[in-house]
Batch of 4 targets.
Target 1
Amino acid sequence: MHNREESALTGVGVVILKELRDYLGSTRMKLLIGLILITALASTYGAATRIRSLVGEDPFFLLGLFTVAGNPVPSFVSFLGFLVPLAAIALGFDAINSEYSRRTLSRVLSQPIYRDALITGKAIAAVSAIAIALLALWLLILGGGMLFFGIPPTGEQVARAFMFYLMTVLYAAIWVMLAMFFSVLFKQPATSALAALGVWLLITVFWPIIASVAAGALADPGTLAYAKIQQGISRLSPNTIYGEVTLALLNPTTRTLGPVVFSQLEGAILGTPLPLGVSLLLIWPHFSGLAGATLLLFAGVYVVFQRQEVRA
């Protein structure tokens, strides 16, 4: 049994390196990186010009590069929330069905590589490609901010920005797994791409409307019960969870992520930044939700792929 488990994972590293090389060298990835880079430079430059007057007053001014919007350009996190799912879908929608289209899957599996290693390696490679691109972007923004302001960031700012980077990678992983699930479910890449984009459109555009309508049917608008129900339904969307995580990490004065009453604010010193550890405790349920959704989607990809018939 022990030897079977080892052999099932044989070749994972080979698959990861091969797929990662293909992703990073593909025209698709270069276009996505270029698009994200252009939008990032535009948004961060607009933010830097607006928060330049706060240097020396706000100890977390550098985090404003991610959150402050420059008229008429939205903030960097707004661009990420929109572009990261599209980049993840673009990398994962044909991860498996392209092998069927090229009739190469049976030849790959005829090597000493099991299905376990193939699907695991493809998933890790896709997430790693996005993680590398986001890491380069993260370093570029922090380095550009230091050059622009002439002041090095504090350890607290770097730690919060790094946690934001990790949560963005986890956010991207959900969409990679969703795209791979449709890639395994449908044999045609065009069909899987349309299905993944349809889910993205539902969550991005229509889910806030659905949450408001559903909450209005269960409680009177304007009440605390209505706000809680609406937020609970909204949190079924990874976009909402990612937005709340961003708020807690990049705005240290955030003390709560849900509706509150005045009695809950008694004794609180509003405007005082929270330590990073407290902010992490605030978003721990969000991290658990994103990680759980990612693992659940990967389990779906794994099970469906294992049950499919592969013909030469």
Note: Confidence is low (pLDDT under 50) at residues 1-5, 261-269.
Target 2
Amino acid sequence: MTRSTRIPIILVTGFLGSGKTTLLNRLLRDRAFADSAVIVNEFGEIGIDHHLVGSAKDVILLDSGCLCCAAGDSLGESLIDLYHRRAIGTVPAFFRVLIETSGLADPARIAQVVLGDSLVSSLFALSGVVCVVDALYAQSELAQYVEAREQIAFADRILLSKLDKCGGLATDDLELVVRSLNVTADILPIPPSAQPPAALFHFNRDSGWTPREAAAHHEHSFDVASHAFRIESEVTWAGIAAWTRHLTVRYGDRLLRCKALLRLRCHVGRVVVQGVHRSFVTALDPDIQGDGHTSSIVCIGRNLERPALLAGLSWLNAPEGSEYSASADFAPWEPIQTIEATQS
């Protein structure tokens, strides 16, 4: 199954009480998302009026036509089971999966199931991570809970809820704090209840990850940060393998997430790299042209040393046939020249 035919997964995260379930309820009433399946960590308020599908007690059909189920002991097993039921026709066809995490969940651990399980990753592709942030209480929550910081840092898109209860100045300050944790994500307000939120959940695979302007000289000293790089160099398969191995060995679980669109030597399109902790998935997608002749890289983690991250990019220059050496402090190849580098 190719990347374009795998079923996209959108991970919806956010701290306790941020409004994830409220937003999903609105989303699932939109006809544009009637072909979705939803997996929740625990049954909440989704689907007030629903009925069981056949005799399957763990899968429900919402009024909108969407499927909803609760992940049991294994999220991977739940995904494969849903896919099997779809294939044999015992549940309606679905063409995307929304996974709602609990308020204290580590989104990296959940994404790792999608990227680290070979069977799951052959059937599903992580399309994007959406984080809902409570504009009323985020500042205090971010100061107290590493989970809230990691959820924001991990996201591709950050949605601000309850803005109608905040002043404009407080909202501006919150955006600076959020940007200090994540320099690449879109930060968008959740539209009023009269407007459909579906547009917030569409991801363009060809857009890449564009660094935004970070909050300069901010006073926050969070342990979680994101680092973005743009490079001109073409890379090799051996270089990608060496670089991802280097990240795994050096940072381990401190690396929450890695995203890259890399220009491969003598090939059309981009190599898409998705990494979570120690799990990496790479695939050449000829349909993604990227941003001109550049490659984009984002590394998100706890206490990552930026100079070491920058030096480690030289592993991408490894010639075909070479291998990564964990005993080497740095790659013996020419350094990668970055044309743009941003950090939070």
Note: The longest helix spans residues 237-251.
Target 3
Amino acid sequence: MIGYGNSVFLRRNFEAGLPPVNTVAPAITGTAQEGQILTSSTGTWTGTPTITFAYQWKRNGSNILSATNSTYTLVTADVSQSIKCTVTATNGIGNASADSNSVTPIAAVDPDAQAFITAAAITDPTQQAAINTLVVDLKGYNVWTKMKALYPFVGGTATTHKFNLKNPLDTNAAFRLVFSGGWTHSANGATPNGTNAYADTFIIPNTNLSLDSTHLSYYSRTNITGPQVDMGVTETSAACYLLYNYNNLAFKAINRLEAAGGSTYTPTNGFLIGSRNSSTTEKYYHKGTLINTLTIISYAKSTYKMFLGAYSNANTASGYSSKQTAFASIGDGLSDTEAANFYTAVQAFQTTLSRQI
């Protein structure tokens, strides 16, 4: 009788139906990036047919308002947060819920950053993120539009190091670099050999820059006290360069006569910016701090090309450097605030790449 009674109970329970039971959890597919669409599967369930499914997307465990479809478009608020989908299965007997895997979306890639990443074939996610953040920061600080050339030196090879972030085309007109002489390329930047190495930017101040609004910047990972030039161009009537050290004086020039003056020498590692924002004043910043203001009249713009890792003396390289460079830029003049913000953005970029000074 006991066995007979159990079989009757089981038969009646089967005839009544079984509630949903999850056997394989739902799964999220799609690119976890702002603006992209994620899709959640239902997972695998047992239970008496017919089973229907409902979806609820969650951010850090809390329901996202109106996100109740199998697909969800990621928004800014989702960046760096934990996103998952709870699927609820229901039939005539009951219901049950199961959570999908969680994903952590990243920010959308700025189109200008993506253009550089594609051109330079940057595949490392950390480098990609660093480039994107740098572009977003520079635009946020309103200094992106002041740049003619930005050289971030990522990717570790001459091929990746040559591209201008502002216009990543492999042409002279786009101011991509052409390396000459002995250079060493690594994840930390590009290092000239100090004897015959330089890079041609194809930027000519007289054509591409403004007499009373020009800046140069150079991020050196090496402190060299010898007579070396980071970047620039000079001729008889005009000079525009960083940084020439002679007898403990740092000679720097922005669109004026070369011999017009020098200043007390400063360490040459870290981020150095030289900027002319008027016809009378040049300012120099080291690691975000104004270190020198020179009252020197602008005179003329050079008609020759500007080099990195040396200076162009009427298109002939001289003053060769051996400093490892991790960033350089050329463009319009910067205000004190813009220079400080520029340093903040570049230093964050270098810190992300673990090569900050």
Note: The longest strand covers residues 52-59.
Target 4
Amino acid sequence: MGRFSRRREEAKPGYEDNAALRGFGGYEPADAPMLPAPELPRAQPRRIRPAPRRRRTSRLPWIGFVLVALVIGVLNAFGVGRTHRSPAPATRGPVVSTSLPRVTVPAVVAGWQSVAGSEGEYAYDVPPNWTPQPGTLHGWEKTAAVPGISLITSAFLDSGFCQGQPSSKHGGAGVTTVRVADPDAAARQAVSDLGVSRYSPDNGPVAAVTVEPGEDASVTSGSATLHARVVVASVVPSETGPCVPKRALVAALAFTGAGKQESGALVVYADQDVPGAATRDDLLKILHSYRFVPASQRSTTTPPPTTYR
């Protein structure tokens, strides 16, 4: 269900579980809330360990299940769809599973593809060279040096680009909750938390994150319009290496429901100065594509069975 990486996923891949995406193991993270009261997962992510040092397994320990349960409880209170996850069985032989039905929605950006929550209540779009993985939870664990962050309804760019690091990525996106009511402050916290958590080593020193002034935006839900803010930050990683970029961009769109003390946020990040890098314009277009989706625009598909080894 989830993927937690300590720092960059290319050089430092961590916890990831795509079972929910494939319909095996059952659990898919709950999705973003519908208006008028947007709320997102409150669970704090487990700390991600780098592949060269220590790699997480594809199953959460008992405390991870407690955190996930908290996420589900928060989202279900607002009518958000969910499924349930059980740990993958320990087996060396192939396992054939029947995939669960998924709700899909049309993209609003021409030539792009949508990334929708499991019930299709909300979605955002990504370029055709990205890989939507809406059933995957990923993030970076909190330590004494970094704040950590967790993202649901994920999408990734250039999976496995770094040789020997199958969990490596040149970019990614996902939805989270920030416990700040002001959208501008929430967007700033989201880009700072992700920039530091992804591009810093476990125990510091932390990456340099330069946050730019925010811009107004909006999120639509039927005839309603929710005020939002978009913030972009540039990041200089605190490490060097063949799989570590010299710089990166992180951007977030945050919005808050009336009377709420938390903000929902879509966060997107991308390594720069690498082949096929997502541009600043790409990141902004991804953020501005975030919307709530009416039931009339949702359809259900069932992927073919998948064999695991």
Note: The helical segments are 19-22, 62-76, 183-198, 280-288.
